[in-house]
Amino acid sequence: MIEAARRLGLDPTPHRAQQITVEMLVWADAVLAMDTAVLEALGSICGADNVQKLGLYLFDRDVPDPMGLGPDAFHDCAVLIEAGTALHVERPA
């Protein structure tokens, strides 16, 4: 995925994954899952007060997992994720 992101002019190397905690869910305004399995797992730990913060990154479909596939699958996934940012972030005028 690092190479796929670099092909798009992005550098994901500063990112570090973290195990999500209830405290993180309480703090967050929104939590976006890449697929329904993760969304369901988040729903089971977030508590009723935070479930409204959860959603799918692409709203109506999962981001496909490229793990175990070739570089083209990772590139396609990175392109889809980058394009999906427009659903959540305003672009400067």
Write the layout of secondary structure elements.
Blueprint: H1 2-7, H2 22-27, E1 31-33, H3 36-46, E2 54-56, H4 71-84
Parallel strand pairs: 1-2
Report on the architecture of this protein.
Helices cover 40% and strands 6% of the residues. A two-stranded parallel sheet has the order 1-2. It contains 4 helices and 2 strands. 4% of the residues are buried. The chain has 93 residues and is mainly α. Strand 1, helix 3 (36-46) and strand 2 (54-56) form a beta-alpha-beta unit. The protein is globular.
What is the approximate shape? Answer: globular
Q: Which strand order spans the largest sheet, edge to edge or round the barrel? A: 1-2
Largest sheet: 2 strands, parallel
**Poorly predicted runs:** none
* Amount of helix: 25-40%
Helix/strand class: mainly alpha
State mean pLDDT (0 to 100 scale).
Answer: 87
| Beginning-to-end CA distance, first to last residue | 30 Å
What is the β-strand count?
2
Number of helices: 4
N-to-C SSE string, H for helix and E for strand: HHEHEH
Radius of gyration: 15 Å
Strand content: 5-15%
